[in-house]
Amino acid sequence: MSIKITGTGSYIPSNIEKNKNFHNHTFLNADGSSINSPNEVIVERFKSITGISERRYADNDLNSSDIGSIAAEKAITDADIDPETIDYIIVAHNFGDVKHNTIQSDMLPSLASRVKHNLRIKNPKCVAYDILFGCPGWVEGLIQAKAFIQSGMAKRCLVIGTETLSRVVDKHDRDSMIYSDGAGATIIEETDEDGGILAHESASYTYDEAYYLFFGHSNNPGLDKDTRYIKMDGRKIYEFALTNVPKAMKTCLGKSGAHIKDVKKIFIHQANEKMDEAILNRFYRLYRTEIPENVMPMSIQKLGNSSVATVPTLYDLVKNNKMKNHKVEKGDIVIFASVGAGMHINAIVYQV
């Protein structure tokens, strides 16, 4: 018996927000003071660090639960299953449904309940719940689904990562250019095939690190002081990720019994191009070996950082041969890894 991903789907919004669209923004420092650089320079510096040239925003009439449902429908179709046979629907997100041009997060009912409703699943034994685990939420949802299946509590699960971060950003903060919208979904189930999830690793660092990502005031002191936006300490997150993610990946690979030379692809949360490249470098340095060519697909340049959606969306694109120079084949060993608010890290070694 193995526990495998049998279907994937993603929703990539059609609305493209290019870097040049930020040239007329009023960016401010955290204390509200002006930045002594023209926006063209600010945007170009941003691109040189993050690699992002454009990102995607959801249509105004679509919420996180809606785009998550669209991705889920594609995964169900890809797996060729009856949705009434799904035992668990696990939806990873961070901010619930935030309607366009509103400031309130809506999580009642849960997004998983909304997705189940949208899919028109009647079976009450299909349990739907949300997971709040920062950007690593989809990976953690996959780990939970594996546990349900391994314990005999389930045979088939739907795991979704969905987010509309464009609606919780402070437009006066340069970091607002990082975030985007999107959704990715997977069907995971017990099969007679070889492979599947070979090992996993998770950790939560909260003693000093809990508030590296947080909800805070706008950089514009003239705005409503009771409204909060997603904020981060980028430098501390960068250092934290470089220290902890490669070690978690190495521990996970060791548990799996696979060798570093067996790894064909590494799907890392698309947070920052330079950070992901540095994580990859440190990971291979732990093995004193060269980095293979094309081992790490990247989507952040065009899709931005859609939090929980980045890893499942990236895997769906590669699996369906929609990324140049990247593909996965049956039997390939791949690694999923993520880091994010909490601070949480996790990794999965998976055989396709």
From TrEMBL:
Please list the residue ranges annotated as the Beta-ketoacyl-[acyl-carrier-protein] synthase III C-terminal domain.
254-351
Q: Name one Pfam family in it.
A: ACP_syn_III
Q: Which InterPro entries match?
A: ACP_syn_III_C, ACP_syn_III_N, Thiolase-like
Instruction: Please list the GO biological process terms of this entry.
Output: fatty acid biosynthetic process; secondary metabolite biosynthetic process
Work out whether the entry's keyword set contains Amino-acid biosynthesis. no
**Gene3D superfamilies from the entry?**
3.40.47.10
Q: Which UniProt keywords apply?
A: Acyltransferase, Transferase
According to the UniProt entry, its GO molecular function terms are: 3-oxoacyl-[acyl-carrier-protein] synthase activity
- The source's superkingdom equals Bacteria
Q: List each copy of the Beta-ketoacyl-[acyl-carrier-protein] synthase III N-terminal domain by range.
A: 129-201
Q: Does the keyword Transferase apply?
A: yes
Q: What is this protein called?
A: Ketoacyl-ACP synthase III
